[in-house]
Specification:
alpha+beta; five-stranded antiparallel beta sheet; 3 helices; about 35% helix; globular
Length: about 100
Amino acid sequence: MLEDFIKKISSRTGRTISERENEYLLVLTSLGEENIVICVREGDYGFYAKVILERDLAIINCSEAEYSPLGLYVFSRSIDELVDKTYAKILYLVSKSKISPT
């Protein structure tokens, strides 16, 4: 089922790679010049994901992302909802990363 997530999110972003990491699916994708890490897992009542910019992680893994205070969470009941919400979070993070402090 999470394979559908990979296909659908990669159709909205750039090159996407993924691998299993314990109970998570680690997804690395890009939008523009930003690399994004997405850690997804399926729970009892739906899906959970953490979306974070790659540059905000010391190590690219889901344990690091899960406990990082940076990034955004996504909760959904379906793959399509997960893709829509995740993409919205990606757009938000990328847009915020382009704002330079004054």
